[in-house]
Specification:
Distance between the termini: 45 Å
Organism: Streptomyces monashensis
Family: Belongs to the IspD/TarI cytidylyltransferase family. IspD subfamily.
Helix content: 25-40%
Shape: globular
Radius of gyration: 19 Å
CATH superfamily: Spore Coat Polysaccharide Biosynthesis Protein SpsA, Chain A
Pathway: Isoprenoid biosynthesis; isopentenyl diphosphate biosynthesis via DXP pathway; isopentenyl diphosphate from 1-deoxy-D-xylulose 5-phosphate: step 2/6
GO biological process, one term: isopentenyl diphosphate biosynthetic process, methylerythritol 4-phosphate pathway
Number of helices: 7
Catalytic activity: 2-C-methyl-D-erythritol 4-phosphate + CTP + H(+) = 4-CDP-2-C-methyl-D-erythritol + diphosphate
Order of helices and strands: EEEHEHEHEHEEEEEHHEH
CATH topology: Spore Coat Polysaccharide Biosynthesis Protein SpsA, Chain A
């Protein structure tokens, strides 16, 4: 593709990959975390709708449990989703990194910007999604939404046994720390290179880009983009949805 015919960053098609193959053991036994109901609708559907709410996102790829692709396809078919957005379901791998890689492998070539979003963050506002996309379009190879920390953080020496006292070894400067959320946004070429190069076990894709020596920038996150990990998080998510229905009329 010539430079004249190549889309500008602001026009580059945007796709989102949602790894949803995890089991979510901290929420207890039962269905995979992404398929747990939130206000009667699976969290995954809430997350898909949250990404598809952005008019810049034209494709959402859901990476399903390897034995649950048909179930996830049926879920997507059974719920109202924006007609302007295409949806694709692919089987996931044994790790989050492998699942994201499988989502990347399924991307059509025209998509130059990729979002990676946790299915367990079902309530991320569309303004946060758009802010990440805009920052990638402005030239950042990797972008993460992030929030300042409200609590003081201690670095400790981990105990050998759960529940045992742990010695504090340092108190990081809180003003320099951020709690990172998703969706994380990437220049596609950068993210593909990271997944082909970095083999360390990491907790997010931005860490992989950091290991390439490339810059990662933050944009303001949102308190409603929290991760639903424990039963109490479900209670909070239900409360957020109830407030939204009251304020927005749906």
């Amino acid at each position: 593709m010539s430079d004249e015919s190549r889309p500008s960053p602001a026009q580059t098609p945007v796709a989102a990959v949602i790894p949803a193959a995890g089991r979510g053991v901290r929420l207890g036994p039962g269905a995979p975390k992404a398929l747990r109901a939130l206000n009667g609708t699976p969290m995954l559907i809430h997350a898909v709708r949250a990404l598809a709410a952005s008019r810049r996102v034209s494709l959402v790829i859901v990476v399903a449990p390897s034995d649950g692709t048909e179930e996830v396809k049926s879920l997507l078919d059974a719920h109202a989703l924006p007609e302007r957005t295409d949806f694709l379901v692919v089987p996931g791998g044994d790790t989050r990194q492998e699942s994201v890689k499988r989502g990347l492998d399924a991307l059509p070539p025209e998509y130059g910007v990729v979002l990676v979003h946790d299915a367990a963050r079902p309530l991320v506002p569309v303004d946060t999604v758009d802010a990440v996309i805009e920052a990638v379009g402005a030239g950042a190879p990797a972008v993460v939404p992030a929030l300042p920390l409200a609590d003081t953080v201690k670095e400790v020496e981990p105990a050998a046994e759960a529940g045992a006292p742990e010695p504090v070894v340092a108190t990081p400067e809180r003003a320099r720390l951020r709690a990172v959320q998703t969706p994380q946004g990437f220049d596609r070429t950068t993210l593909v290179r990271a997944h082909e190069t970095v083999t360390d076990d990491v907790t997010d894709d931005a860490s992989m880009v950091e290991q390439l020596g490339l810059p990662v920038v933050t944009v303001p996150g949102h308190e409603e983009a929290f991760k639903v990990t424990r039963p109490l998080d479900l209670v909070l998510a239900e409360a957020v949805l109830a407030r939204r229905r009251l304020n927005d009329g749906f």
